[in-house]
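We read letters as residues; the fold follows as C-alpha cells. Both lines appear below.
***
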Amino acid sequence: MANCETISVEKLAERREQGNVDLVDVRTPMEFRETHAAFARNVPFTSLNPQQVMEARNGNADEPLYVICRGGVRSRKACEKFTDAGYSNVISVEGGTDAWEEAGLPVVRGKKGVSLERQVRIAAGALVFLGAVLGFFVNPYFIGISAFVGAGLVFAGITDTCGMGMLIARMPWNQVSCEEETCEQSTTASNSQE
C-alpha cells in the first residue's frame, strides 16, 4: 500500500485562507448532507474513480487534492487509491470532518440521518440476536448466523474494511436525491466502477 501525505485541519484551513483548495469528501451522500466542510464536494468512496476526479479538475491535476472523510480512515484509503492510479499530490485530512468540526471551522449542516456506523451496529446486532433466538427455538444450526456475523466483525476489525458497511451504504435510504446541491459530483462518480 502507498504511504499518503497528511495534513491537519488547522493547516488546511490556513491554506484555504491563502487561496483556492480542492477538498473532496469521500463519505456517503447521506453523511455529506448531514455535515461537511463548507468548501468540500462529495465523491463517495464506493464509486471513487481517481482518473475521473482528476480529469474533472480542468487541467489542475498537478495542484494538491485534499481528501476528507469522517475520521480519516476512508480518506487514507482514497488517497492510496489515487496514488496507486499514479496521482501523487493527494493529501489525506487528519481526523476528518469530526476534527474539522471540533476545531470550530466552517461547516454546512443539512438534514440529519442515522450514521452508517450506527446502521452497521444495528444490522449486526439484529443478525446476531436473530441467529441466537432461531438457534435456541428452531434449530441449533441457526447459531451459524451469529458465528458468521461475528467472524465478519473480526475480519472488519483486522482489515479495516467492512463489507456490511459498504453494502448498507448502497441502500436506497442512504442515497441523496441529486436535486439537492450536495451531490453535484456524486452523479458523475456513481457511474464509475469501484
The radius of gyration is 19 Å. The mean pLDDT is 86. The first strand starts at residue 5 and ends at 7. The first helix runs from residue 9 to 18.
